[in-house]
Design brief:
Layout (H helix, E strand, L loop, with lengths): L1 E6 L6 H10 L3 E4 H11 L6 H15 L3 H14 L4 E7 L2 H11 L3 E7 L2 H12 L9 H13 L2 H6 L3 E4 L4 H15 L3
Parallel strand pairs: 1-3, 1-4, 2-3, 4-5
Helix pairs in contact: 2-4, 4-5
């Protein structure tokens, strides 16, 4: 089994990388899904504000690796039938530590990177499909600040591989192909 974990700042292209990998037949576990599942268990309405507040609070209460722990059951279930699993949205070095402890060398971290202005330019299109995202520059800046407070900057620095995503989707897919030839055994 190989776990390809993805990190990066909001709107850098993590979702596009995930979409490309799942189109190849790999199964996905979203880090935010474990948080949302926990919110549902606690009967908390799922919306942008509640997600960010709950995610911040649960990390304060249970440690910055808690989102990784909440993902174990979904990963282990998929591992019964799939050789490659994609985890979208690694946010803290502690999450990396939790996954490395659990999965060892089968865990590979890829960061997707793009300048803030590029990410900001993607916001209007994504706001059409994601109700839990910020809607303007102030919201995106707040989200950057919040996720950096969780250790996202350090997490990006710890990535095994980096993918720059500031060009066309086709250029990004070419970079993905090149990277996968290094990451996945043939």
């Amino acid at each position: 089994m190989k776990i390809i974990a993805i990190t990066g700042m909001p709107l850098a292209g993590k979702g596009e990388l995930t979409k490309e990998l799942t189109a190849r037949g790999y199964k996905q576990v979203s880090m935010s899904q474990g948080i949302k599942d926990e919110m549902e268990r606690q009967k908390i309405e799922i919306n942008h504000e509640n997600i960010r507040n709950f995610a911040t609070q649960i990390r304060k209460d249970k440690g910055r690796g808690v989102a990784a722990e909440l993902a174990f059951s979904a990963i282990d279930e998929l591992a019964k039938t799939k050789d490659v699993i994609v985890i979208d949205g690694i946010r803290s070095p502690e999450e990396i530590d939790v996954f490395k402890k659990e999965y060892g060398d089968d865990f590979v971290l890829i960061s997707v990177e793009a300048d803030f202005e590029v990410c900001l330019s993607r916001l209007p299109e994504r706001a059409k499909t994601r109700k839990d995202d910020p809607v303007d520059e102030a919201g995106l800046r707040w989200r950057y600040k919040e996720e950096l407070s969780w250790g996202l900057g350090e997490t990006i620095e710890k990535a095994d591989y980096q993918l720059k995503n500031e060009g066309t989707l086709e250029e990004f897919k070419t970079k993905i192909d090149e990277l996968l030839s290094k990451v996945l055994p043939q």
